[in-house]
TrEMBL record:
Gene Ontology cellular component list: membrane
Molecular function terms from GO: phosphotransferase activity, for other substituted phosphate groups
Cellular location(s): Membrane
Keyword check for Membrane: yes
Single GO BP term: phospholipid biosynthetic process
Any Pfam family the entry gives: CDP-OH_P_transf
Keywords for the protein's UniProt record, in alphabetical order: Membrane, Transferase, Transmembrane, Transmembrane helix
Record-given protein name: CDP-alcohol phosphatidyltransferase
PANTHER family: BB IN A BOXCAR, ISOFORM C, ETHANOLAMINEPHOSPHOTRANSFERASE
């Protein structure tokens, strides 16, 4: 299905124009993020300050960001027990976000834009959020809430990608990845303060973690249901032509072709072998 969307280059989706000449679609990126103008754009604008080697592939930056995400998840898992847990969680989340902002800029600047890098980047993003949500679930001893949170996370990711396929627009909500990461980083700092007893008026760190996690899940599920309703309405109004084609069972076709090429019996096979 080809969408009639005017293609444009972005820092992460660096397709060449030759792709469009052969009919490859490209989703337009639209961000309604509240914090991107203040947190994302400055990091990209001062890309040269980071002195990233030109030989480093963008996929390497994606890997570094993913390692930061794992570090953040481990830190959040210990955030209710040790002061360094919340600090480690906040550092991991911030490091992941900076890498996520720089990988596309680096690819565009050094001419290393590849579809594989784009795929890996989007593949790693929901995994990073999963580490953090599971880490918080471990910290408050509620893996049942962790399952709900991760299911809601991946449901949101699937909804976003399918909607982008049908409408040709990859849209980020006002409370999107940047806002979520900022909230989790601040949560890590709060947990560090609680374990240090810098905020004596608040309850125990475990209780704060449980309340915060529960509210986050309720908010996330509510946002998911609202976006699902709006997405169904939007794809019906703005989506491309309806795909009415059937699935092509390639394996069945191959089996039929092989069966046609196979000799009917052993005698025929022996005759053909003798003839050759």
């Amino acid at each position: 299905m080809i969408f009639s969307v005017k293609p444009r280059l972005s820092e992460k989706n660096c397709f060449t124009f030759s792709l469009f000449s052969v009919g490859f679609p490209m989703s337009q990126r639209i961000s309604h993020s509240l914090l991107d103008p203040y947190l994302a754009l400055p990091v990209k604008r001062y890309y040269h300050w980071w002195h990233i080697p030109h030989w480093l592939p963008p996929e390497g930056i994606v890997l570094i960001g993913h390692l930061f995400a794992i570090l953040g998840g481990v830190g959040l898992a210990f955030s209710t027990q040790f002061w360094w847990g919340g600090l480690l969680g906040a550092i991991g989340i911030v490091g992941n976000h900076v890498a996520d902002l720089l990988d596309g800029t680096h690819a565009r600047t050094t001419g290393q834009c590849r579809n594989g890098g784009e795929l890996l980047d989007h593949f790693a993003d929901p995994l990073s959020f999963s580490y953090w949500l599971i880490g918080i679930a471990v910290s408050c001893g509620r893996l049942d809430l962790g399952i709900i949170a991760v299911v809601g996370l991946y449901a949101t990711a699937v909804l976003t990608n399918i909607k982008a396929k049908l409408t040709g627009e990859f849209t980020l909500a006002a409370f999107g990845p940047t806002e979520f990461k900022t909230l989790l980083a601040l949560y890590g700092v709060l947990m560090m303060s609680l374990t240090f007893h810098w905020v004596p008026m608040l309850p125990s760190s475990w209780l704060v973690a449980l309340w915060s996690y529960s509210l986050l899940i309720v908010f996330g599920i509510g946002q998911l249901l609202m976006h699902l309703f709006l997405a169904v309405k939007e794809v019906n109004e703005k989506g491309g032509p309806i795909d009415t084609t059937e699935w092509e069972t390639v394996r069945s076709k191959k089996q039929i072709l092989l069966k046609k090429q196979k000799p009917d019996n052993v005698l025929t096979s022996a005759f053909l072998d003798h003839s050759n």
